[in-house]
Amino acid sequence: MLPVLSGRRAVLLACAVLVTVAMVLPATAQTTGMAKGRVVDAKGVPIEAAKVTIEFKDGISRTYVVKTNKKGEYTQIGLAPGNYKVTAEKETIGSQSFDGRVRLGDTLEINFKLDAGSAGPTKEDVAKATAIRKLFDEGVAASRAGDNDTALAKFNEATTILPTCFDCFYNIGYAHSQKKEYAQSEEAFKKAIELKPDYVEAYNGLAQIYNAQKKFDEAQAASQKAASLALASGAAGGAGGVDALYNVGVTAWNAGKAEDAKKAFEEALKADPKHANSHYQLAMCLINLGKLPEAVAEFEQYLQLAPDGQYAAQVKAMLTQLKK
């Protein structure tokens, strides 16, 4: 059986505080939506040079800042589909925030009315967010260094400050999974989903730990849920959506369902043709199904995308045999 594979190592934070904590990993670029709107004062007069901050909330660090024109209008193109927090602010006037979703090929329109009553974050809010930021950054550093115990301590402490920090629970689940503490990992991923029901990454995390325990039915259900959520949000081409489709394939393959696995990897590649591991896994399925020329093409595509990838040596050896 194939090892359980993860498309990426996600370390995320998107807590519901007034001062946003920065994320740490890059995302696959998508310029498929836009946001626009107007900022006025309490009397309806346009506010020029108001600062509008557009923050991606679905687990990736991505923030855009624009200024309003003389008509109080702002526009930001090139937004990936997903959930955003949009904040307008002007010194001496006030600030205001709203949440919204950018959909594939659509425009998110949010208008603001600022006055002295629409004040920004309090000192307490700022202190709270600063404490969470510090703990989060320390947890990230520990996780990247492979120090999962320290990472767990930092993320757990963050949840005592903000119990609704769903990405803290996601990272707790991830750290436990690295220690093969699957019961604790499952509990944390489920808590993240309880707080954020459309959390694609958390469902992907569940699929991976279920695969590791050969609980293929549960893994399949979690993978399919992640994929359906990604498709529903219009974000199937993003990292989380591709990972979800990839995990569906891995689960089917581990369960001995080569044809189902093939279809899932093909769907993943439709979403992201450069997803190297999907090319590799698709090639393995094709070999299993007796489609050797097609397998050769997929292996060659894998090497083109990941010449030094984790399967590169194995692929080169298999190509030598297949081409004889």
Which helices and strands appear, and what pairs or packs with what?
Blueprint: E1 34-41, E2 51-56, E3 63-67, E4 73-77, E5 82-90, E6 94-102, E7 107-109, E8 112-114, H1 123-144, H2 148-161, H3 166-178, H4 182-195, H5 200-212, H6 216-232, H7 239-254, H8 258-271, H9 276-288, H10 292-305, H11 312-322
Parallel strand pairs: 1-7, 1-8
Antiparallel strand pairs: 1-4, 2-3, 2-5, 5-6
How does this model look, in words?
The protein is of the alpha/beta class. It has two domains: 34-120, Sandwich (Immunoglobulin-like), CATH 2.60.40; 124-272, Serine Threonine Protein Phosphatase 5, Tetratricopeptide repeat, CATH 1.25.40. The protein has eleven helices and eight strands. The chain has helices at 123-144, 148-161, 166-178, 182-195, 200-212, 216-232, 239-254, 258-271, 276-288, 292-305, 312-322, and strands spanning 34-41, 51-56, 63-67, 73-77, 82-90, 94-102, 107-109, 112-114. Strands 1, 4, 7 and 8 form a four-stranded mixed beta sheet that branches. Strands 3-2-5-6 form a four-stranded antiparallel beta sheet, with no helix packed on it. Helix 3 runs antiparallel to helix 4. The longest helix is centred in the middle third of the chain and has 22 residues, at 123-144. The chain is globular, with a radius of gyration of 22 Å. 45% of the residues are buried.
Provide a concise account of the structure shown.
The chain has helices spanning 123-144, 148-161, 166-178, 182-195, 200-212, 216-232, 239-254, 258-271, 276-288, 292-305, 312-322; strands at 34-41, 51-56, 63-67, 73-77, 82-90, 94-102, 107-109, 112-114. With 324 residues, it is an alpha/beta fold.
